[in-house]
Amino acid sequence: MVLSLPRRLRPFFRRRKRLTKLARLAYETLKELLQAAAGTHGAVPGAVACLQSAGNLLDWHPHVHLLISWGLFRRDGSFIPVKETPDPETVARLFRHKVLRMLLEEGAIEERVVGNLLAWPHTGFGAHVSREIPADTKTPATVARYMTRPPITPERMLGDAGNARVIYRSDIVHPRHQANFRVFDPLDFLAEVSAHIPDAHEKTTL
After folding, report:
1. Residue 140: Cβ within 10 Å count
2. 47 touches 68 (CB < 8 A)
3. Would you say 132 and 1 are in contact if contact means Cβ atoms under 8 Å apart?
4. How many Å apart are CA 196 and CA 205, to the nearest integer?
5. Which helix (H) or strand (E) holds 192?
6. How large is the angle between the packed helices 88-105 and 111-119, nearest 10 degrees?
7. How far is it, in rounded angstroms, from Cα 169 to Cα 178?
8. Of 6, 66, 86, 190, which has the fewest beta carbons less than 10 angstroms from its beta carbon?
9. Which of 204, 99, 188 is nearest to 151 (CA)?
């Protein structure tokens, strides 16, 4: 599962301590929905959350990849399966509520910003509910590599020494850049990449 933020709120998460809180809010969102589906608050899901800050073309795009058990574990280790799959819109709405409340409590935004966001037809909060991960020999490792992938992929980089520029490519057309590549001055490229380097002792997998 992937949970993401609207562009308007992304700059507030350049304060990297909030990224860890974002992962916790993503987990709490799914925990509450699974508990409601199972009809109990006495058990919790198991999960691994991976923080990502880069979009396909290195834009600042904080989001959370969440690998979560589709059911709940009791303290004695027994498991309560959940059959229902929550509607992505329901997931996004609850996640939105938690994120906005956190930013309000920290004084990062004001009530008028919340009101403005909620007035939009599409607030920009996203929830992608993926498929069940099969317990075969390859899929779990493939998913783990995807969730923890670095912000840049060397195969997507092209150096243009004659013009002193770096071209970074994507597999898809970026909606804001209207292209599947970006052209950087070398120093600008380094600055863009450095924004995605975690702080010392910062955890990006929880």
Report:
1. 13
2. yes
3. no
4. 14
5. helix 186-194
6. 160
7. 12
8. 190
9. 204
